[in-house]
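Re: [ENG-882] Designed sequences occasionally contain unexpected residues at chain ends

Forwarding the minimal case from QA. Structure tokens:
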């Protein structure tokens, strides 16, 4: 299997994830539900997809929010981006959270997230007692300002 081929099992009744436009980075993935799921404000749920992946070990699959769903309904992926490791063979699930002030209902077949496949670099950690200097130093969490 090459790094741009991903094997997929679709145990659901919805179409395979697809790129919605030629320039899209992510493939939309759909909820596989036996009944609608309602999420109260700040409530979260694991939504199944019926999808199982097998990919090259140089890849990861990131589960990312859909911008329209976030803007229009206040739903987003809680652990953004969610990572599906190359050696995971279980069902792809999406942890959705309702950040709106109203209850939101997710329907079977609704496009709930997008899958983005990315290259992964493996590194070797080298224990040291101190690090080299940089222009930024230890500045973080807004240390470069807002404007």
């Amino acid at each position: 299997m090459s790094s741009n081929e991903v094997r997929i099992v679709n145990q659901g009744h919805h179409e395979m994830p697809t790129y919605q436009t030629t320039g899209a980075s992510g493939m939309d993935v759909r909820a596989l539900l036996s009944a609608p799921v309602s999420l109260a404000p700040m409530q979260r749920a694991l939504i199944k997809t019926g999808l199982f992946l097998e990919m090259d070990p140089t890849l990861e699959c990131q589960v990312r929010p859909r911008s329209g769903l976030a803007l229009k309904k206040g739903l987003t992926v809680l652990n953004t981006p969610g990572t599906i490791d190359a050696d995971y063979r279980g069902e792809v699930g999406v942890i959705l959270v309702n950040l709106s002030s109203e209850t939101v209902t997710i329907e079977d077949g609704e496009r709930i997230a997008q899958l983005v496949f990315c290259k992964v670099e493996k590194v070797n950690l080298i224990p040291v007692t101190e690090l080299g200097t940089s222009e930024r130093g230890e500045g973080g969490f807004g240390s470069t300002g807002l404007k």
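QA comment: On inspection the terminal residues look reasonable. The two ends are 47 Å apart (CA to CA). Proposing we downgrade this to a documentation issue.
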